[in-house]
Amino acid sequence: MKTILTTLNAKYIHTSLALRWLYVANKNHFDIDFIEYTLKEDVETIVQELLDTHADVLGFSVSIWNVDRTEQIIKLLRERKSDLIIFVGGPEVTYEPEFFLAHWPIDYVISGEGEFVLRELLQALESHQTPDIEGVSSKQKISHVVAQADINQLVLLDSPYQLQRDRENLRHRMIYFETSRGCPYHCQYCLSSLEKGVRFFPQEYIEDNLRYFIESNARQIKFLDRTFNLNKKHTHFVFDYLLKNHRPNLSCQFEVYADILSEELIHYLNSNLPHNYFRFEIGIQSTYEPTNLAVQRKQDFDVLAHNVKLLIEADKIDLHLDLIAGLPYESYDRFIQSFNDVFHLGAKEVQLGFLKLLRGTNLRKQADKYGYIYRKKAPYEVIANDSISNEELDCIRLAEFALDKLWNSGRFTRTMDKVFSKHYNKRYFEFFFAFGVYYQKNNYPQFGYQLEDLYRIVHEFLLSLNIDLFPSLRTDYYQNFNIRPHGFWESEFTKQERKQLHYLIGQDRDFLRQHKLSRKIVEKQINIDPIDDTTYLLTHFGVRKSNLNEHPTYIYQFKSEIE
After folding, report:
1. Quick check: helix, strand or coil at residue 386?
2. Is residue 17 within 8 Å of residue 89, measured between CB atoms?
3. What is the pLDDT of residues 197-251, one digit of tens each?
4. Which of 87, 142, 417, 496 pairs as cysteine with 108 (C-beta 3.0–4.6 A)?
5. Closest CA to 284 of 235, 199, 345
6. Which residues, including other chains, have CB under 8 Å from residue 507's CB and lie 6 or more apart?
7. Nearest to 307 by CA among 270, 255, 279
8. Are the CB atoms for 9 and 18 separated by under 8 Å?
9. Domain 161-388 belongs to what topology?
């Protein structure tokens, strides 16, 4: 009996750790293999490839991002091979197996961690027995058990991280790595809140796999631990190992609870971390205490803000702060305050998401209590509730669009710093919303525009507010290029005038000697922008200042105005 495990990843760089765990747990007992696809791939092609494997059993890992496409594929497979045994697992199906068995043409649902449960299921199928297994549901019997694998048994398996078939592509893919399973918190909108207890992998096992990543050509490790810094001893062990074995061009990403970070640990990281090695994702979600109490999210924002500022001041760790719009009791005005509270901390990235009422979560079960209206199809995004209207959420979406384009992209750093320090001090949401409205009213494209278009639009928007930050915008624009660009503004020089300026500056031997330039460099790599009639800003492309990652600039002044 041949078994194929499969899933649809959101992007090519993503990998499915779930498939790999199922594979290593069962490969020595059954004829089993796995195949990964992405959402962009053609459904018909996927179906035919799966049929061409001549599998007797197909298993799908189902998540919120691939549930609709997976349903399409399964229905087509069932039409073309009616005797195929199909099971599904994953977070999307775990807590409502009866729904999927009733609406999808499938045979079984595995709820929870399926490594050893799958082994029992396949043994039953090979023996032609009716499966009666905790964590496995069928049309005949629904199991409300959510399986948990024994970590002491998992570590005896071949490592799912060290498969030979993956080694060549490690540097091209995101590596998902777990050092623990489970979450101690009970956030009512999160599936992790339904897991019982936190279980840690042994230090030797963690060390062995981290050594493998470091000695290979891996570039990105995303730690899947729900709250990485939950256990002080465990956290220090992993951080110590990564610091002692630092390798350039490797970055590590963690989800942390910022208000339980100790100042001792923060000081240790700030003092010892290389730049661009660690990235912290910090879920704040809301700064409104009644909202946090409603979703059972424990948070001390004053402590959190203090710790985040300590990390930002050292500028060693990239911080990604999360907010969720649409939570209980948080009105539009109160959400704006939460946004401004969080943005004021100064992180390089602020992620603004919208509440999704996931299958199985307590908040979905309590939807009527808060007057929730939400989409019945994945990703189950909230349309409105008793505290915030659909129109107000749409206003937040306009701000989200601007936030991603102007802040999270990192393309407008200098311009945004001036906007918020001089013109929109502590009114961050208001600025992003105003840009979103301006962009929408002018019917500018959401996709397919050139970078020059976006800079031009931002410049025009700022001028509409009587804010002229052209020099900052120009510098921000230049930082996107390693070779001399054309510009997003109308040139102040004709082609002949620019050629003359390059020639004259290239003849100034003292200037060239002072800045270690040559006439050829001036002609090929220098952009010239006027400051006044006799003074020019020269920007040198093709080389950057290593400490700031900026293009070197020089001021050049003629003794008299150029004819």
Report:
1. coil
2. no
3. 899 999 999 999 999 999 998 999 999 999 999 999 999 999 999 999 999 999 9
4. 87
5. 345
6. 519
7. 270
8. no
9. TIM Barrel (3.20.20)
Q: How far apart are CA 31 and CA 185, in angstroms?
A: 39
Cα–Cα nearest to 121, from 67, 112, 155, 20: 112
Helices and strands per DSSP (H, E), number in the chain: 23, 19
Taking a C-beta distance cutoff of 8 angstroms, is the pair 525, 540 a contact? Answer: yes
Give the whole-angstrom CA distance, residue 281 versus residue 321: 6
User: Which ranges of 34-162 would DSSP assign to H, the alpha helix?
Assistant: 43-52, 67-80, 91-94, 97-103, 115-126, 151-154
Q: Of 127, 138, 153, 65, which Cα lies nearest the Cα of 104?
A: 138
| CATH number, domain 2-150, options 3.20.20.70, 3.40.50.460, 3.40.50.880, 3.40.50.2300 | 3.40.50.2300
Structural domain boundaries of the chain? Answer: 2-150, 161-388, 495-557
Gap between the Cα atoms of 299 and 286, Å rounded: 9
Peptide bond into 471 cis (omega under 30): no
What distance, in Å, lies between the first and last C-alpha atoms of the chain? 85
Chain Cα centroid distance, residue 215: 25
Average pLDDT rounded to a whole number, residues 308-322: 96
- Describe the chain by its helix, strand, coil percentages, rounded to 5: 45, 15, 40
- Residue 135 contacts residue 117 (beta carbons within 8 Å): yes
- Which among 528, 546, 545 has a CA at the least distance from the CA of 537? 528
Half-sphere exposure of residue 426: CA atoms within 13 angstroms, side-chain side: 2
**At what angle are helices 232-244 and 203-215 packed, to 10 degrees?**
30
What residues form DSSP beta bridges with 321?
282, 350
Give Cβ neighbours of residue 284 (< 8 Å, ≥ 6 apart). 258, 299, 301, 304, 321, 322, 323, 338, 342
- Residue 338 structure tokens: 């939460």
Evaluate whether 291 touches 327 at the Cβ level (below 8 Å). Answer: yes
Condensed to tens digits (0 to 9), the pLDDT of residues 27-42 reads 999 999 999 999 999 9
Look up the pTM and report it: 0.92
Split at pLDDT 50, 70, 90, the class of 318 is very high
Structure tokens at 97: 């197996």
Identify which of 315, 319, 313 has the alpha carbon closest to the alpha carbon of residue 349: 319
The pair of structure tokens assigned to 382 is 């909230």
- Distance between CA atoms of 314 and 329, rounded to whole angstroms? 36
- Rounded Cα distance, 458 and 405, in Å: 10
- Residue 388 three-state SS: coil
Residue 454 structure tokens:
């976006």
364: Cβ contacts below 8 Å, ≥ 6 apart: 357, 358, 380
Tell how strand 382-384 and strand 373-374 pair up.
Answer: antiparallel
Instruction: State the DSSP H helix or E strand holding residue 137, giving kind and residue range, or none if neither.
Output: strand 136-137
Q: Please give the structure tokens belonging to residue 132.
A: 């009666």
